[in-house]
UniProtKB/TrEMBL annotation:
Span of domain Glucose-methanol-choline oxidoreductase N-terminal: 301-315
Mitochondrion recorded as keyword: no
GO molecular function: flavin adenine dinucleotide binding; pyranose dehydrogenase (acceptor) activity
Record-stated family: Belongs to the GMC oxidoreductase family.
Primary localisation category: secreted
Key word Flavoprotein present: yes
Annotated source species: Ephemerocybe angulata
Identification of the protein by name: pyranose dehydrogenase (acceptor)
Amino acid sequence: MLSIIALVALALSATSFARLCHDPSHLRSTYDYVIVGGGTAGNVLAARLSEDGKNSVLVLEAGGSNEGALVLEVPFLGPTATPNTVFDWNYTVTPQTNLDGRTFPYPRGRVLGGSSSVNYMVHHYGSSEDWDRLARLTGESSWSWNSIKRYIARHERFVPPADNHNTTGQYIPSIHSTTGVLPKSLPGWSNGIDQRIVATTAELASEFPFNEDITTGNVLGITWLQCAIGGGQRSSSATTYLKNAMGRTNLDVLINATVTKLVRTGMSGGRPCFKAVQFANGPQGASTVIRATKEVILSAGAIGTPQILQLSGIGDRAELTSNSIETILNLPSVGKNLSEHTLVPNSWLVQGSESLDNLRRDPAAASAALSEWQANKTGPFTDIGTNMFGFLRLPANASIFETTPDPASGPTAAHWEVLFSNFYASGSAAVPPPNPNGSYITAVAALISPTSRELFSICLHTAMNIIQGGTVKLASNNPFEAPHIDLGLLASEFDRFVLREAIRALKRFFCASPWTDYVISPVGGLAGDADAELDAYVRSIATTVFHPVGTASMSPAHVEWGVVDPHLRLKGAEGVRIVDASVFPFVPNAHTAGPTYLLAERAASLIRGY
Ligand SMILES: Cc1cc2nc3c(=O)[nH]c(=O)nc-3n(C[C@H](O)[C@H](O)[C@H](O)COP(=O)(O)OP(=O)(O)OC[C@H]3O[C@@H](n4cnc5c(N)ncnc54)[C@H](O)[C@@H]3O)c2cc1C
Ligand SMILES: *[C@@H]1O[C@H](CO)[C@@H](O)[C@H](O)[C@H]1NC(C)=O
Ligand SMILES: *[C@@H]1O[C@H](CO)[C@@H](O)[C@H](O)[C@H]1NC(C)=O
Ligand SMILES: *[C@@H]1O[C@H](CO)[C@@H](O)[C@H](O)[C@H]1NC(C)=O
Ligand SMILES: *[C@@H]1O[C@H](CO)[C@@H](O)[C@H](O)[C@H]1NC(C)=O
Ligand SMILES: *[C@@H]1O[C@H](CO)[C@@H](O)[C@H](O)[C@H]1NC(C)=O
Ligand SMILES: *[C@@H]1O[C@H](CO)[C@@H](O)[C@H](O)[C@H]1NC(C)=O
Ligand SMILES: *[C@@H]1O[C@H](CO)[C@@H](O)[C@H](O)[C@H]1NC(C)=O
């Protein structure tokens, strides 16, 4: 790891700032749109709302510029961009009751591009049934898959992989776009395990079918990973949408600007209007208020958005009062119903040295890979070391369905996901491999259809055990104090059941013939098989995939719960829209950046009326 640490130190020090404002006195006095957060969704809106030249747009971002930072460019270094770096909010989750009371780091990007600048670049859009459920839940058909998938064409630009290999059969070109904004591609560096995985999908086709491309909307099966990588480099919302828009005179971007609250500017039809925001340059910096003539758009992400709402007096009255904040709008759903993908990293010791473990611990190997990346944008650093993944269901006759209705978004949506990594990975638990010089394969299992949340359509509640879901709550009324983030993971027997069955399924996967001369033995607590052993193993090792949603949930306009209506307008107020991952009521069959980009494209078309 030494070499990686040295590279990170180098990259973190090489920050240079582009044509952005640092000084609030350079801003106009008002803008048509003020966007809070220059992250994944915020930069899509900045680009789309400024593109016709008619609107003035301001983006306020707490972090700095992404430019000049190597760790935000080299795909393989992605996992070193967080936690606890200058690009991170450095959150830690509260002790997780169902994970032996453990806490762990909970990164969120704090830099232009937001979490898209620091994430692991897996890029896809979820199950068609996720979007159809959203349309059903909200009563707004424009969220259905048939309606939303048109935004893929505006959003993505499919480009050849870094190694230019023949991609026939690895994706379906006709359902992708080569004319959108964000470069994405298939893996750019072949892993020794890829062909063994493909062979296993043939041998165990009924349990682990091969799926040529999950962008059809049917996610089930094992597929080649598509990543937000183009020409061997990371694509973020900052390197794409924002960069393309930076020359426009009607767009200003202020970095180092932490928004501390939305400001009430009056009443409209008996509803409070919040067409101004207050921000500061850090805890000691001066405070400035800036007004939006059309709308304030909150895009601070699934943690930042509920925190800002609560600081503004918008949230659960009892919680606000306990933090000495006057309630302007009592919206109890703010910061509630947080949903996540629980992650369990399962590793096996393997033969030989074709794994990428050496690249992660041998300074000479890492330095050669970096030189190749710098000179030619080729080699292992163009990739994330994970080339295949998949989405899978419990068998239809699984015993858990006798007590729990199926919570998947539909019959062709998944209960769990697998990601195959060609090295030892331990999530953020920082568990060292048993043999520091060994070679490993890791099959990360993630729970896709969690029931550890408040659900109205499925009766999981007993009088003794009402599941509340995860929460984001203020620690105090100080905007510079991190909120309490309780993910509420694995609170239901269904969730624990899925992870046990996922681990058992992965053991069957590695018993197939393509692995007989490769896989040696499972690592640590993975070796057990009894329910109690697997539960204990999961409790000891599980973290998350960093996919929080639901903390400012969309809901039908007329119902009491929820935070925004189906057009993303803050309920009970005027002048504010929320556009980021916090509005998804359920966590999708997807890593959440892709769905967030489509959401933001849809929001731009709602706002501009195209
Ligand atoms: C380590 C990690 C790995 C991940 N891996 C993947 C992956 O491989 N694939 C995938 O699809 N998804 C992944 N995700 C999740 C995905 O990146 C996020 O779901 C998505 O980017 C969220 O977009 P957003 O617009 O909601 O928020 P963000 O992109 O986080 O944007 C929020 C922005 O608001 C800013 N902000 C917050 N508060 C304030 C404030 N008070 N004042 C001013 N600015 C503020 C933040 O600094 C940030 O720039 C990962 C996330 C993490 C953290
Ligand atoms: C996160 O931690 C890093 C490393 O200690 C630090 O540089 C950075 O300022 C911290 N970020 C915040 C928001 O506190
Ligand atoms: C790519 O592979 C396919 C199938 O194997 C083959 O038909 C095609 O000719 C190849 N394309 C190129 C450019 O080699
Ligand atoms: C951010 O603002 C603070 C307070 O004004 C200042 O000390 C700091 O240098 C600024 N940082 C950047 C990167 O501009
Ligand atoms: C959580 O979401 C469900 C819908 O899935 C809803 O019925 C419930 O009211 C929500 N709870 C809160 C506190 O918002
Ligand atoms: C870059 O590619 C050229 C041409 O293939 C090759 O000669 C050179 O060695 C490569 N550079 C590195 C650092 O790998
Ligand atoms: C489910 O069905 C399969 C195949 O028909 C069978 O092998 C298995 O034992 C059944 N499992 C349960 C829990 O009934
Ligand atoms: C790992 O390899 C290093 C370098 O070859 C060696 O010094 C060390 O003893 C090895 N450790 C183990 C546990 O084998």
